[in-house]
Predict the 3D structure of the following.
Amino acid sequence: MDIIAEILDADRLAEEALVKAEQDKAEMLKKAEETCRLSDEQARQQLLDYRKEREAALDAETEKRLKEIDENTEQEKKALDAAFEKAHKSWEDEIFSRLTALP
């Protein structure tokens, strides 16, 4: 009878170890899934942060370039205005002379 008791005891201990191993396995899977989920969230957030940084940098560069274009346009406009002020009287006189000289 002692051998049967020992076999039953060993079987019980093996069953308990198996149940414990299954519980440990479930817990490890749950932790792994949570780690993956957190890693995914962190990766998404890093991607969003990087995207925002890039957009901000591109917006700043665009604004800088637009300001340069505006400044250049304004300078060109002033140069054209100055050229017009300087030469418009002679242009008017030349146009008038050509129109009056027509047969």
